User: Which sequence fits this backbone?
């Protein structure tokens, strides 16, 4: 047994590390003095006449170190004497099995706690090693814990033999690997779940090398590419791209930016069909090899839909352009018709003062001619001269009054016409401008018998487009005449109707204009459509369906405001305009675009 400490030391070294060396020395000490108890210290100096410390006196300190190492690592060691049929265990072994105090440990203590499923395998492994078939052993098994559960043990050790090769002793280290095995089980379960998820994923998941070699693909990849999985795994990745340059560009982007998402790429199927995908890239390590992880999401249907939408949009834009052109022509025609009505009305209205003035001037001329003849004939009497002067004075008064009236009509018509035709922006007083506008509409209003009441402060000014506002007010008046009052059908009634235009400041920088009539009102099903282009309830009776549409576009366009309508059948209609006192410098996109889409 003299060589046994050296053999145990070699076994410890093969086990690995300082713990193995300590185990070997401990087993050697126990082989020489199995019944001895070690002292707790070792002298640091050698006995007299010796060149080094007495190793037998230092051996107990090695035992202390082993115990410290076992306590620190949670490992356990054993030392089995095969000839004596005895086995020694470190105190950490029963604690590993859940014992607070070391229990009675008969020779079969360890074997009786083996898991039934591990028993035959482990015992066969030990028997093979003791028979000399292996130089060392390392295996894992389960031992029953004191609480009834199972502890996974990793055991490493070797047998020690005599000069004949017979195994006389064996020792080893045991480590609790229960948590590690649990983590391995959880990891395997996680990997299995991940694999199932990847297989069931509705998007293609692939792992490839940079040079285009396949490492993994899920079922959706094979479906996406139109190939069986085995065929797909044999196909170089580059050959799948509709344009092989796309993959080179993606690799360059990946090298430049790192992981990226949603690059639109085309793949070609064996039948020649094109598949559009969103490709996302990242890196992954698979079986120790760095690889590219890619997700492919099929967007072929979306691409086809986008293409169809583009074609439909282009066709719609062409139709919309044609419709806008036709609409602009109709709006221009409607505007000119409105201006033409204004001209006709003013011409009719101005005819009366011009006729009276012409009559007065003609009368003055005739009386002057009579006076001259009598003066030449020396037959002019004083009374006749005074009568002529009185007539001249009255005719002059009539002539001046009617010329002033005609001049006022001309001036009003000129200002309204210029505003509506030029579209210039200027500062104007709102109440005065509304009165001028209504003055130019007097012929049309006179025939209808309607009364128009204007309620507006004298100092309510606007820096805006009077022509646009005039167009709005004119269209509202004409709309009321045609739709609310039947274009004069109520002229013979005792109370033909009243239109009220009320304007007031709405804060510091806005005005509110209410245009109210007490006419027929608008049906509920018609009310939401009054601003739509070409919508009219007077089709075939002179209605174009553009009057209120022009009003809406003008209010929300150059005037920069809003308009709303309220109405009940038989109770009249109210149009509410909110306008900025200072019109916006830049005109927004015309509102009819939104109305037509």
Assistant:
């Amino acid at each position: 047994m003299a060589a046994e400490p050296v053999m145990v030391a070699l076994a410890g070294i093969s086990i690995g590390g300082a713990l193995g060396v300590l185990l070997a020395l401990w087993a050697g000490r126990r082989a020489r003095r199995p019944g001895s108890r070690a002292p707790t210290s070792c002298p640091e100096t050698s006995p007299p006449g010796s060149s080094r410390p007495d190793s037998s006196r230092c051996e107990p300190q090695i035992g202390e170190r082993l115990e410290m190492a076992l306590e620190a690592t949670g490992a356990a060691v054993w030392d089995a004497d095969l000839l004596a049929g005895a086995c020694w265990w470190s105190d950490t072994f029963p604690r590993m099995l859940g014992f607070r105090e070391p229990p009675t440990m008969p020779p079969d203590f360890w074997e009786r706690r083996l898991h039934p499923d591990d028993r035959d395998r482990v015992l066969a492994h030990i028997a093979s090693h003791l028979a000399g078939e292996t130089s060392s052993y390392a295996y894992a098994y389960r031992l029953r814990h004191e609480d009834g559960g199972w502890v996974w043990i990793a055991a490493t050790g070797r047998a020690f033999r005599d000069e004949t090769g017979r195994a006389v002793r064996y020792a080893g280290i045991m480590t609790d690997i229960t948590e590690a095995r649990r983590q391995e089980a959880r990891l395997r379960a996680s990997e299995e779940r991940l694999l199932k998820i990847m297989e069931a994923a509705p998007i293609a998941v692939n792992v490839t090398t940079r040079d285009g070699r396949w490492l993994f693909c899920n079922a959706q990849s094979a479906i996406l590419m139109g190939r069986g999985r085995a065929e797909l795994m044999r196909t170089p990745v580059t050959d799948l791209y509709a344009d092989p340059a796309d993959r080179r560009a993606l690799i360059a982007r990946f090298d430049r930016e790192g992981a990226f998402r949603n690059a639109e790429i085309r793949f070609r199927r064996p039948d020649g069909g094109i598949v559009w995908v969103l490709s996302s890239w990242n890196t992954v390590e698979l079986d120790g090899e760095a690889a590219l992880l890619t997700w492919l999401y099929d967007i072929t249907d979306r691409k086809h839909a986008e293409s169809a939408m583009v074609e439909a949009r282009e066709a719609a834009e062409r139709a919309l352009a044609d419709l806008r052109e036709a609409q602009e022509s109709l709006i221009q025609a409607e505007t000119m018709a409105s201006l033409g009505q204004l001209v006709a009305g003013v011409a009719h209205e101005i005819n009366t003062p011009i006729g009276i003035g012409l009559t007065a001037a003609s009368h003055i001329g005739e009386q002057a001619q009579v006076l001259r003849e009598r003066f030449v004939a020396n037959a002019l009497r004083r009374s006749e001269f005074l009568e002529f002067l009185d007539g001249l004075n009255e005719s002059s008064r009539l002539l001046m009054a009617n010329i002033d009236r005609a001049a006022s009509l001309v001036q009003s018509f000129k200002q309204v016409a210029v505003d509506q035709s030029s579209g210039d922006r200027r500062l104007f007083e709102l109440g005065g401008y509304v009165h001028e506008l209504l003055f130019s509409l007097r012929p049309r209003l006179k025939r209808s018998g309607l009364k128009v009441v204007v309620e507006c402060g004298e100092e309510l000014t606007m820096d805006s487009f009077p022509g646009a506002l005039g167009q709005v007010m004119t269209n509202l008046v004409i709309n009321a005449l045609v739709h609310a009052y039947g274009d004069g059908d109520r002229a013979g009634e005792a109370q033909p109707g009243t239109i009220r235009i009320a304007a007031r400041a709405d804060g510091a920088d806005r005005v509110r204009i209410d245009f109210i009539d007490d006419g027929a009102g608008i049906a509920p099903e018609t009310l939401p459509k009054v601003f739509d282009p070409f919508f009219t309830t007077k089709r075939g009776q002179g209605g174009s369906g553009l009057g209120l549409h022009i009003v809406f576009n003008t209010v929300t366009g150059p005037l920069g405001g809003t308009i709303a309508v309220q109405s009940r059948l038989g109770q009249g209609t109210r149009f509410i305009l909110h306008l900025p006192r200072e019109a916006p410098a830049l005109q927004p996109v015309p509102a009819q675009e939104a109305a037509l889409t």
About this structure: Residues 278 and 297 are 5 Å apart (CA to CA). Confidence is low (pLDDT under 50) at residues 1-59, 587-597.
